[in-house]
Structures are given as structure tokens and as C-alpha cells.
């Protein structure tokens, strides 16, 4: 597969994530450990912007707590497309791929509806195909993420 073809497939899979998980809105009342882990204003700030415009720094501390001390599976599903996008872009200041993709297991993703599981699998597969075409650290990050998604799910 050429780099161009891999990029097109990746972009289509990313759009698929946004489309499939669009029905999950930001919940202003998502359960969070307030005020110990977060201030309500920090959570409100996440919902004040469009999902696609959230920056790595705005999400990095939140993603560590997601499904632990903040948020439930439906909240994870809301943020999933953007979290996966930033992870695949290997954004500076963002968390590692293992942390983000590791949330799939915590969210019990193997029990999600077929359409959602397929969108996640398609994204991970297209990310891997793109990573194979790139000459950087992308392969290592992607491989680590795939291990989190596949091996932990067994």
C-alpha cells in the first residue's frame, strides 16, 4: 500500500469514528471526583469547545482519570474519536498510546455494539497500515496501542 492510499484509508477510518460515536454527547453532569481530582470548571471547559478543537493539553490530565475517577463508558465514547486522533498524530504533550487505547479494555469494548467495535477496529487497522508507511516513531506507538487493544482483550 502506498503512503497516499494509507493516508486516505486512515482519514476515512477517523471520520468513521467521529460518525459512529457522534450520538454520545458531552455530559455536563458526568460523574467526576470533584474537587479532589478536578474542578467543575475544568470539566465544563471540555464541553465548551467542539470535540475536534480540543487540544492535547486540554485532554491530557483528563484522559488519565477517564473511566477511573471521571466519566463512564458513554463519556469515553464521546471523547474517543478525538483521543484516538491525537494519539495517532503523536501530539506533543499528549499521553502515550497505551494509556489511551488501554481505555478500551476498561470500557469493556468487546461488548459494544458491532458498529462501534468495527469502527474502532477499522481505525486501529488503518493506523497500523499508515504507520508501516511512515519513517518515524509512529510504528512503535501504534504497535504498543494495538497490543493494548488486542492482547488485553483476550
Radius of gyration from the alpha-carbon trace, in angstroms: 15 Å
Report the total helices. 7
Approximate shape: globular
Name the beta content range.
under 5%
Helix % is: 55-70%
Return the average pLDDT rounded to an integer. 87
| Helix-strand topology string | HHHHHHH
What's the number of extended β-strand segments? 0
Structural class: mainly alpha
Overview of the structural elements:
The chain is mainly alpha-helical and 154 residues long. It has one domain. Helix content is 62%, strand content 0%. The chain has seven helices and no strands. The chain has helices at residues 3-21, 40-47, 56-65, 73-88, 97-106, 114-133, 138-150. Helix 1 (3-21) packs antiparallel against helix 4 (73-88), helix 4 packs antiparallel against helix 5 and helix 6 runs antiparallel to helix 7 (138-150). The radius of gyration is 15 Å and the shape is globular. The two termini are 29 Å apart. 32% of the residues are buried. The mean pLDDT is 87.
Summarize the structure.
This protein is 62% helix and 0% strand. By secondary structure, it is mainly α. The protein is globular and about 50 Å long.
List keywords for this structure.
154 residues, mainly alpha, 62% helix, globular
Please outline the helices and strands.
Elements: H1 3-21, H2 40-47, H3 56-65, H4 73-88, H5 97-106, H6 114-133, H7 138-150
Helix pairs in contact: 1-4, 1-6, 4-5, 5-7, 6-7
Amino acid at each position: 500500500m502506498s503512503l497516499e492510499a494509507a493516508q486516505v484509508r486512515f482519514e476515512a477510518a477517523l471520520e468513521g469514528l467521529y460518525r459512529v460515536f457522534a450520538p454520545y454527547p458531552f455530559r455536563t453532569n458526568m460523574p467526576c471526583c470533584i474537587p479532589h481530582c478536578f474542578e467543575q470548571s475544568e470539566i465544563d471547559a471540555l464541553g465548551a469547545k467542539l470535540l475536534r478543537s480540543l487540544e492535547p493539553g486540554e485532554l491530557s490530565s483528563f484522559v488519565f482519570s477517564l473511566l477511573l475517577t471521571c466519566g463512564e463508558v458513554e463519556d469515553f465514547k464521546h471523547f474517543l474519536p478525538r483521543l484516538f486522533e491525537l494519539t495517532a498524530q503523536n501530539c506533543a504533550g499528549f499521553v502515550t498510546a497505551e494509556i489511551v487505547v488501554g481505555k478500551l479494555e476498561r470500557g469493556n469494548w468487546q461488548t459494544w455494539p458491532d458498529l462501534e467495535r468495527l469502527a474502532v477496529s477499522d481505525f486501529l487497522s488503518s493506523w497500523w497500515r499508515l504507520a508501516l508507511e511512515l519513517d518515524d516513531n509512529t510504528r512503535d506507538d501504534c504497535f504498543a496501542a494495538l497490543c493494548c487493544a488486542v492482547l488485553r482483550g483476550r
